[in-house]
Fold these 2 entries.
Entry 1:
Amino acid sequence: MDLDRSTTVLQAFSSIEILAGESEYSDIYDLTKSAGNASIQLEVTGNGTARVEWVGTNDDTALVTAFITPNNASDIVTAFTKTSGPGSNGKHIYPFGLSLVKKIAIKVTETGGVNPVTVTALLVIQ
């Protein structure tokens, strides 16, 4: 059965190394035609620990670092490592809801503070 769902698949990160204690942001994605449903397919390698969240804005700022975490939004995942996920292989898919915002970005922070982490992530927005 063919379902009528409009989804967009975006490469949020492609083998991006994030140094200990540092953060990286994805590109900025426009949600003006979105229903607010999303998921992220995450793959982490390296000896670090990743925290993945989404940040947003309702204005036209081009500075992703000026985006904010909306009220009642929670992290997509915290403490994700190369042995996390159902297969203990650093891979998992996390669905998450989006607040009504105009634009979002995915933010990944290495939280272990000692080792880097390498992240690949596919974002699906509906």
Note: The radius of gyration is 14 Å.
Entry 2:
Amino acid sequence: MSLTEIPYNAPHYMALSTDIVGGSISGASYTGATVYITDTHTWYQILPDSTLALLYYNITSGSSV
């Protein structure tokens, strides 16, 4: 699967875990955008150096880290 951009107020992407190479995804370039990995059901955020940081959501309080 190639990277798919989902346009909203802030860009979001969808991809597969196999698209992650060296901690980043080719073509995912918007700093702060989120990436949903469909096969593992996880969310990442794109950091300023284009690497991905796993997002953790606290369902009880609604905050994220």
Note: The mean pLDDT is 83.
